[in-house]
Each structure stands twice: as C-alpha cells, then as structure tokens.
C-alpha cells in the first residue's frame, strides 16, 4: 500500500474525507501532505525532524516560472543573507554596497481565467521585486603627502551575522604583486597598503566599527582568508603569517581576542624578552622537556614542526638511528619553510590550520603541492593533531564527520540542514562513485582534503539543493556559490521520490538562447534561503552587462 | 462550512465540501497503548544529570587518536632507554 493510500485510509477511519477528486493532482498531494505533516509536526515539534518534514512541501512549491532578462541596475549580486531578509550586492565600480530587501510581487487579477494571463510588463523590472533598502557609499579617497590612496570594496567578500543582523565587508587599496619581503613579510605574497574590515548593521546601514590592517595581505576572494563562527572572526594575514581572532560584541564592537603567529599567548613576547638565555639552552638540546614546553608556548610553527617530527622519530627509532638523524636534518628546513595558508574554526577553541609551501599558497593547483593540517587548541596552545594532506586517517574523519568541518553556528537553523555526504545517502553514494572511479587512492584523498579548510557561508541553505528532495547536475548548479560554465540548456531539477518527475527547470541567459555560441559564458545562481525564488546571472568574460533571470513560483 | 481548514480561499468553492470535522462524541481509536515497568532495577541514579558534551564528535575522535598515538610510543621509549643508556654517543665524523 503506498503512503498516499495509507494516509487516505487513516483519514477515512478518523471520519474525514479529502478532496472529492481522487486523482493525483498537485493540489491533492499537497493537501494530503499537509494533513500528514500536521500530525508528524505534533509528534516532532521539539526535534529537527520537523524541518525535514516541512521541507517535503518544497516538492510542491517550486520556482517554475521564469522572467527572462530582467531590467535591473548593473550591480554585482553577491548573496542572500541566511535569514532571507536581505540581498547583498556591490556596484559595478566597486564603490557602493547596495542592500536590497526582497519583497514579493504584488499583482492581482479579478477576472475568471487568471492563470492564462501573463504578468504585467512592469514585473520585468527589478524594482518591483525589491525595494532598495539603502545604499552605502564606500568611497574613501585619502590624499596623503606621497600617494593618492583610493579604496574600493572587495566584491567577493561579505559575511553575515544572523543573530544581530550584522554584516562584514572589506575595502582595500590596490594589491601590489611582486613585493619584496620587507618588514618581516613573506616573499611572493602580494602586498596591500590598507585593508579595512567594516562591521555594518543592516537594519539601518550604520557602520558600527572597523578594523584596519596596514601593509598586509588577506585573501578575500570567496571569503577564503576570513572565517566567521558564531561571534568569532578569524582573519589570516598571509604576508605577516598571523591569525587574528576578533570577537563581534552585541554592542557592535570588534574586539581583538588574540593574535596567533609569532606568539601564541598574549604574554609570550614579555616572557621571551625576559628569558633570552632559554633560547640558547634549546639550541644545545640539554634539557629536552623544558625546551619542548618553551617551544609549545612560544612558536606555533616551531611547535607543530617539532611534534610532527617527534611522531616520525618514534616510528623509525626501531630501525636505524643514524638513518633517522639524517632524515631529520634533511627534511627539517622543509618544515621550517611552511607557511599558514588557510584557517577555519572547528569550535570556539579549536582551529584547523593548513600549512604549505609559499608557491602552493598562491597557485590555483594547490593539489600538486604538499600541505599539512594542524588541529590547534587556542586555549592550551597545543597542537592536538598534525596530518599530511594525503593522510587516510584525516580523510576518514572528513568522510564521517563532514558536517562538523563545516562548523556552522548552532543558532542558525537553516545552515545546519545543508546536504553533505555525512548526512545524506545520495551525496554519500555520489562520493563513493567518485572514489571507485579515481585512478589512485592517494590522489583522491589529496583532492578531497584539498577542500579543507572550508570557507564559511559559501553554501546556500535553500531546500531546493536538498539531495533527498531533488536530483540535479552538480556540475551545472549546486549549493556552493561558485561561478560555473553556462550552457544554453535549462538545468533540470528532478524529484527523488517516485514518480521521479521533472519538477522545475532553471535556465540562465536569454529565453531564446545566445546568438553566438563561441563566447565563453559563466553563470552564478542565488537562491533565497526558504522562498521559492532564485536569481540566475549569466555574464560573459568581457565587460558586457549580465543577463539576470528571476525564477519564482507564480 | 465548519471544515478543518476554516475559511481559507480556494480556486474551486466545491473543494473540501465533503469534509466533516471529527465527531467529539465518538471515542477516538488512536489512543496509544501504555506500558508500565514491573521492576525498578533499571531506574537511573537519583542524582544523574544528562548534559551534552561540550566537545563535538569530530574533536573527540581527533583527541582520542592523538592519545592512542602517544601512549604506546611512551611505552616503547621507556623500554629502549635502559638499553641505550649504557652506550656512549659516537663522535660525529662530519
């Protein structure tokens, strides 16, 4: 007996009948689902199951209607905030941050056969779907004695703090490549004279606080160099090799909690300066235990280098000790030359830090270069674990507990239900399929661990990306907000449940397709977190205006 | 109409016309069976408090593996030190 039949029988027993037409029309399915959901919701109100139950409604409420080529201002749309209240975009000249508050189309039709009517022409205008909430000018031209500094906003970077409706965006001067290693900076890393992080209250547009970094470099493309967890912000300074931990207070202040890099604890610099002779003892290797403790306290990189090397030491001590000593000295400089690439929070006290060589940090093919991962406890300043990027052990943890690597705040309900291979059987099957197809196991492990550490707020919480509900081509569209190669064919979303029918299609670009098939086009998609509403933006690589389509439920 | 859905708008006014609210006089057949324990051997201790562990499962695994790796290594080094303790370090030829 199918689920629908069981529900019908249950309803008949309890003395209620459903709609008269027993055929499986969309309205009937929705009615039965609603009735079933009410009873399930009563049972599961206090658990997270109610989210999954309610999500099944999205099989019936889909953005099936598309308005092609909407007339909208030439902005670069960045994202919807996780609570769905705002749409963040940057102006084309990178001087303005424009925030929209999405409203719904209001259009009423008093006639009999309303479905056959088209929407009025003004529906094609972007303004009817949103009201320009505010416009914040980030022009910041400072004329100093020697240079004319002009800051522009970084259009790839925006983080949202859901609890207080705060947003964080950044402005910076132009990065200078090929900079020399002056002022303690790393050779090969670009150099930015001034980067400012602004904390903005989105409700009224007031800038509450800002944090400035001088003569530094933070990688802001796709939120890579910054990680937000609850109210803690980790900013990785690549040039000076520091991890700055800031706290966002409810009052709107950005407070520096700690700076990890040359020193682990706040009083380390004082300790080092007043105990200068301790470093001489370490070089002599006399008192091994106390020097180890000193290393752990004072230098993060030195600590993880020594501990990893210690593990290797203990493994080989049963073999030849001489050979061991040679290996140690041979590889030691490689470990010392490692730099911090990327950082993420695992919880409020633990960081996952990726180390690699200088060349690998700035290149695109990071898989080819050797990299290491360290789990660092900020409170005890201990390196808890240290793995190479080909470690099977770390990959097994990644496969089983991927959701914990994503480190979403517990307060954010929507972000905790994004499909991953740790919480979804379909995603896991897909991963296993890739694993079986991979030519070499270690290459596969390196490729998967290359995703770590994750960037925060890079995935859309929209239920249309829930793998339990819909099947779609992950190469063309997915929850991750990356630009993808655009095709003229619409992207199909097919129901997972029987009868596995096509539910809706998302077609980027003009309705009739593109005239010239030769120019390369890229698409990006912005889905609202919970409404059946999405934007698809298709752009060519030349500075032509992008084609924006709106997909919604009519 | 007195339907469960109240006065919600509908495309077709004849929809849900045959819906009847459940009769309060007839006994509901949905009373679940209840079970009572026959002994008290499995009662929890009176001062038991159940809380969520602060550290998440991923970090617990990482810490457990780290402790496992260090423990047998310490046993091995303690075993080896008496053997090598009597030997003198050779002068390095380099």
TrEMBL record, chain A:
Q: Would you tell me the Gene Ontology cellular component terms?
A: cullin-RING ubiquitin ligase complex; nucleus
Please indicate which superkingdom the organism of origin belongs to.
Answer: Eukaryota
Pfam families attached here? Det1
Biological process annotations from GO: carbohydrate metabolic process; positive regulation of proteasomal ubiquitin-dependent protein catabolic process; protein ubiquitination
Transmembrane residue ranges: none
Molecular functions per Gene Ontology: ubiquitin protein ligase binding; ubiquitin-like ligase-substrate adaptor activity
Q: Which SUPFAM superfamilies match?
A: Six-hairpin glycosidases
**InterPro entries from the UniProt entry:** 6-hairpin_glycosidase_sf, De-etiolated_protein_1_Det1
What is this protein's record name? Answer: Light-mediated development protein DET1
* Organism for this UniProt entry: Morella rubra (Chinese bayberry)
Specify the taxonomic lineage.
Eukaryota, Viridiplantae, Streptophyta, Embryophyta, Tracheophyta
From TrEMBL, chain B:
Instruction: Tell me where in this chain the DET1- and DDB1-associated protein domain is found.
Output: 3-68
GO-annotated cellular components = Cul4-RING E3 ubiquitin ligase complex
Query: One GO biological process from the UniProt record?
Result: positive regulation of proteasomal ubiquitin-dependent protein catabolic process
Give the residue ranges for region: Disordered.
1-48, 75-94
Biased composition (Basic and acidic residues) is annotated at 75-86
Biased composition range(s): Polar residues: 15-31
Q: Report the family membership.
A: Belongs to the DDA1 family.
This protein is called DET1- and DDB1-associated protein 1 domain-containing protein
């Amino acid at each position: 007996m199918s689920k629908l039949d069981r529900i019908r029988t249950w309803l008949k027993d309890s003395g209620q009948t459903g709609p008269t037409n027993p055929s499986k029309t969309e309205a009937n399915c929705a009615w039965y689902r609603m009735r079933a959901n009410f009873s399930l919701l009563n049972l599961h109100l206090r658990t997270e199951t109610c989210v999954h139950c309610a999500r099944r409604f999205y099989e019936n409420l889909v953005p099936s209607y598309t308005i092609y080529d909407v007339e909208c201002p030439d902005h670069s749309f960045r994202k919807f905030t996780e609570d769905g209240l705002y749409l963040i975009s940057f102006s084309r000249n990178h001087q303005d941050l424009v925030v929209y508050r999405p409203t719904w189309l209001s259009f009423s039709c008093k006639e009999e056969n309303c479905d056959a009517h088209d929407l009025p022409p003004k529906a094609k205008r972007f303004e009817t779907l949103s009201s320009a909430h505010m416009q914040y000018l980030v022009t910041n031209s400072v004329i100093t004695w020697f240079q004319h500094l002009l800051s522009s906003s970084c259009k790839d970077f925006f983080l949202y703090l859901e609890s207080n409706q705060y947003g964080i965006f950044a402005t910076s001067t132009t990065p200078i490549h090929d900079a020399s290693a002056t002022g303690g900076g790393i050779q090969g890393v670009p150099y930015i004279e001034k980067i400012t992080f602004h904390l903005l209250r989105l409700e009224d547009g007031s800038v509450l606080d800002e944090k400035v970094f001088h003569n530094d470099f933070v990688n802001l493309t796709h939120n890579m160099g910054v990680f937000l967890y609850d109210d803690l912000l980790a900013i990785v300074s690549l040039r000076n090799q520091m991890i700055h931990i800031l706290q966002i207070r409810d009052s709107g202040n950005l407070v520096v909690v700690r700076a990890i890099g040359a020193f682990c604890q706040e009083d380390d610099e004082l300790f080092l300066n007043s105990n200068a002779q301790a470093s001489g003892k370490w070089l002599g290797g006399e008192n091994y235990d106390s020097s180890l403790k000193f290393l752990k306290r004072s230098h993060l990189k030195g600590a993880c280098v020594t501990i990893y090397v210690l593990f290797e030491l203990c493994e080989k001590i049963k073999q030849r000790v001489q050979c061991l000593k040679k290996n140690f000295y041979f590889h030691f400089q490689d470990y010392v030359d490692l730099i911090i690439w990327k950082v993420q929070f695992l919880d409020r006290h633990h960081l996952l830090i990726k180390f690699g060589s200088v060349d690998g940090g700035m290149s695109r093919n990071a898989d080819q270069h050797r990299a290491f991962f360290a789990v660092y406890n900020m409170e005890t300043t201990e390196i808890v674990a240290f793995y190479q990027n080909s470690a099977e052990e770390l990959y097994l943890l990644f496969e089983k507990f991927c959701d914990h690597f994503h480190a979403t705040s517990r307060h954010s309900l929507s972000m905790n239900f994004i499909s991953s291979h740790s919480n979804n059987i379909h995603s896991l099957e897909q991963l296993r399929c890739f694993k079986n197809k991979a030519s070499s196991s270690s290459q596969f492990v390196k490729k998967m661990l290359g995703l770590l550490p994750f960037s925060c707020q890079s995935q859309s919480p929209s239920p249309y990306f829930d793998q339990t509900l819909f099947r779609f081509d992950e190469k063309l569209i997915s929850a991750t907000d990356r630009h993808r190669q655009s095709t003229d064919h619409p992207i199909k979303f097919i129901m997972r449940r029987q009868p596995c029918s096509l539910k809706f299609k998302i077609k980027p670009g003009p309705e009739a397709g593109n005239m010239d098939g030769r120019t390369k086009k890229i698409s990006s998609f912005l889905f609202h977190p919970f409404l059946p509403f999405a934007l698809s933006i298709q752009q060519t690589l030349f500075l032509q205006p992008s084609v924006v389509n709106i997909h919604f439920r009519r | 109409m007195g339907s469960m859905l109240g006065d919600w708008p509908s495309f077709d006014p004849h929809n849900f016309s045959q819906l009847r609210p459940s009769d309060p006089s007839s006994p509901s057949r949905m009373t679940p069976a209840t079970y009572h324990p026959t002994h008290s051997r499995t009662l929890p201790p009176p001062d038991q408090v159940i809380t969520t562990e602060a550290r998440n499962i991923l970090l617990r695994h990482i810490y457990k593996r780290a402790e496992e790796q260090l423990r047998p290594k310490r046993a091995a080094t303690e075993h080896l030190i008496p053997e090598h303790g009597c030997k003198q370090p050779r002068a390095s030829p380099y």
